[in-house]
Every structure is written in structure tokens, then in C-alpha cells.
Amino acid sequence: MNENDNRHLYHFEQFTLENYKKLLEIAKSNFNFIFFEDFNSRTKKSIILRHDLEFSPLLALEMAKIEYEIGVKSTTFVNLHSEYYNTFEKKTYKILETLLEFGNRIGLHFDAHFYGIENENDLTYYLIREKKILQELFNVEIKTFSFHNTNPFLLQFDDEEYSGLLNVYAPKFFKEIGYGADSTGYWRYENLFERLQNNKDDVLQILIHDGMWQKEVLSPRQRIFKVIDDNAAMLKKYYDTTLKVFGAINIDWDRIV
Ligand SMILES: [Zn+2]
Q1: In terms of residue numbers, what domain contains 113?
Q2: On the chain, which terminus has fewer CB atoms closer than 10 Å, C or N?
């Protein structure tokens, strides 16, 4: 096998759920896991674990189970305009409730592109609206937000707080501390396994994207395609089951179920 192929270059092997567990175990041996809100009162070496809920609530649940088992906490940022899941549908809603029961927190994953935000007034207006929706939906206080699909324009909004929400891209959480992210399925900043093993950071934020960690070794693109295919299969099953439950006939080309 060629050592310069993508599999090696982008460490496909590392992005499995089994290795996610290993990553957390390495982290837990040297760090205390805290929430963004605890940042100023931290006393030990700390990690803020952040999930931007992007592709698969089911995989987010798998990861939350691993975290619960190990005894670490995280914040999951929920996008109300995702193309991949619907926060209001029962299965996603139940998963997010379970995450809260595990002692994790929910933040707002804010899609500024949905509104075409042009200035700070727009930003604060829509942040308040979405914060209220999430708070009422889950009956919890929402204290943090993260931008979805950041770009240089959005990163200009680097105050610590907007609309009463802590901004995870404020310098104190982002530029001034260690930062590790698996965005689009590879270690964009530094290989996090190596960074945690080196143990040089005093505090760092880790950003994880659910669909990028699977049971099997896949390329990043195929990891997301698997999420999409699994979801399609699940929806087909849901259609058949629903018709059965309600006693409706399910007509196909050559048979009637
Ligand atoms: Zn996002």
C-alpha cells in the first residue's frame, strides 16, 4: 500500500468509534472535562468537548454512550436548519433528551447562512429567536452557540457573548487555547491523538462531528454517504411499518402487502 495515499495521509483508521473511546481515555488521563460555562472557574488542566450535531443523531448517541461510560461530559450544538436531521422529529428529539439525561448540555449550532446575516443586529436578532425555540423545546437554558460553516466574515464576530450566549469562537475558547477539530473528517489543526499524548496544553477545546466517526474504517466522504444510506433505509422501513400500524394497504408493482 502506498504511504502517500489518502488512507494514510488523512488517517482513515483513526476515525472509528473504538478509537473515539481511546481518544477520550487518553484525554481523561490528563484532563478534567468542563463545560464552556466553567471556563473561568477551572482549577485543573481542562478539555471542553464540543459536538456540532451535523449528520447523524444516532452516531451522536453512540458517542454519548461512550462518553457516559468513560465519565466525561460534552456539549452538543444543535442546528435547527440541518439538511441531515430534524430536531423536532421524535427520534432526534428523544436522542437529545437522552444526551441531557446523561448530564450533557445542549448549545445552539447557528446557521447564519440560512438568514443571510449581514451585520451584528441581524445576528443578535436571530440568535435570540433560535435560543428561545431550543429552550422551549427542551426546557433547558441554552448558554452557548457555535457558528455552522464558519467563514472569515462570521469569524469577525468574536465577542465573548452575543444575545446572552457564549461564543465558542471567541479568542478565549479558540485562538488563545489549544484547539482540535475533525472537520470534514481529518485533523485540520494537529493530530489530536498526538497532541493529547504530548500533553502540552493547559486547556483545549475539541470539536467533534458525529458522522465522521463510524464502526468501520471509511474515507470521510464514504462515512457521510453511509449516514445518508442508513437513513434512507431507515425511512423506507418507517414507511412500511407506519402503513402496517395504521392498517393501510402498501401497494408495490407486483404485490399488495
Ligand atoms: Zn456545522
Answers
A1: 6-219
A2: N
